[in-house]
Amino acid sequence: MSWTPPDYTVDENGKVAGYVNDRQPNNWGRWGELDERGTTNLITPEIIQQASSLIREGRIISLAVPLDDTGPVHPSRPAVQHWYGYSGADLIAGSSLNDAYPGFQGTDDYISMPLQASTQWDGLAHIGFQDVLYNGFWLGNVEQFGGAHRCSVHHQKESLCGRGVLLDVARLKGVEHLQGGYAITPADLDACIEAQGVEVRKGDIMIVRTGHVAWWYTLENKAEFFDGGSPGISMACVDWIAEKDIAAIAMDNVAIEVEPFEEPYDVIYPVHGRLIRDLGLSLGEIWHLETLAEACAQDGRYDFFLAAQPLNLTNASGSPLNPIAIK
Predict the structure, then answer these.
(1) Do strands 248-251 and 282-285 pair parallel, antiparallel, or not at all (unpaired)?
(2) What span, in angstroms and rounded, lies between the C-alpha atoms of 161 and 163?
(3) Per-residue model confidence as pLDDT tens digits over 239-274
(4) Is 219 exposed, middle or buried (0-12, 13-18, 19+ CB in 10 A)?
(5) Per-residue pLDDT tens for 224-234?
């Protein structure tokens, strides 16, 4: 192995000195030179107040997959591990805990997991390009010992609540799930908006249904899920998303974008780089949208109040969550 040191310097704010993002569109500097939240700045108090008026029935719908080892975890990550420190069986059978705490009865458990191995948000520290994160911060600000010193997901802890809009592309196409490799285009999104009679507005959290995650849970041979690629948004959607000023995107697939990647591409997960790194857009992956899709189809309302704030994970690149749609 060999290595050539970079020919740039990093300033006192953790930004690569003099670096200019020549990829368009981008939101660098739009909310200040030191902004670490990106497009969630678009979710204003006024937008949240307006979104609250969408709560009419008080019906709560979880959009999370079960937090266990049965979910569609990307092959590059280990599965969720859940175990007990002490259980009811331990106390009933007798253990040293009985001696330490006489008469006590209780249970205590733990999980170990990648932060992006279930229903989750990709934070802005997750993807870089040319050694640079969103808004020009140096990728080296994310370190193993101290975590993400810039663009951490904990900056979003009081965000990602507001107006959610479901675009049910699978229903539009008349299928239970889109096939792997299907690239969702701006024309698909526009057709879905027209068919559903809904509007996508500035500051919205847009949720796109492909049916892919639900399909996972029906498969006996889980390898089929990853071997066949994934439906997802195309590179052509980047400009469309930027023009709409969407605050965030969530989908029921593993990586938002279509796989295999569209040719030509210079790096893997090219849409990730454009959305997270250039637009500062948080991406929600592995959401479960079947119950929400049925509810929206029944009442004809595809917008709702969405509470989808990440955990307050200090210096983290992503976060699991239990997003809630309230109709």
Answers:
(1) parallel
(2) 7
(3) 999 999 999 999 999 999 999 999 999 999 999 999
(4) exposed
(5) 999 999 999 99
pTM, 2 dp? 0.96
Q: What is the per-residue pLDDT for 313? A: 97
Report pLDDT digits (tens) over 137-186. 999 999 999 999 999 999 999 999 999 999 999 999 999 999 999 999 99
Q: Which CATH number fits domain 38-74+115-326: 3.40.50.1980, 3.50.30.50, 3.40.462.20, 3.40.50.2300?
A: 3.50.30.50
CA atoms of 15 and 34, how far apart (whole Å): 9
3-state SS record for the chain:
CCCCCCCCCECCCCEECCCCCCCCCCCCECCECCCCCHHHHHCCHHHHHHHHCCCCCCCEEECECCCCCCCCCCCCCCCCEEEEEECHHHHHHCCHHHHHCCCCCCCEEEEECCCCCCCEEECCCCCCECCECHHHEEHHHEECCCEECCCCHHHHCCCCEEEEEEEEHHHHCCCCCCCCCCEECHHHHHHHHHHHCCCCCCCCEEEEECCHHHHHCCCCCCHHHHHCCECEECCCHHHHHHHHCCCEEEECCCCCECECCCCCCCCCCHHHHHHHHHHCCEEEECECCHHHHHHHHHHCCCEEEEECCCCCCCCCCEEECCCEEEC
Domain spans of the chain, in order of start: 38-74+115-326, 81-112
Q: What is the pLDDT of residue 1?
A: 87
Structure tokens at 136: 């020009």
Q: Residues 8-27: what's their mean pLDDT?
A: 98
Count Cα atoms within 13 angstroms, Cβ side, for 28.
18
Cis preceding-peptide flag for 260 (omega within 30 of 0): yes
CB 81 within 8 A of CB 112: yes
Q: How far is CA 111 from the centre of its chain?
A: 20
Q: What single letter denotes the amino acid at residue 298?
A: Q
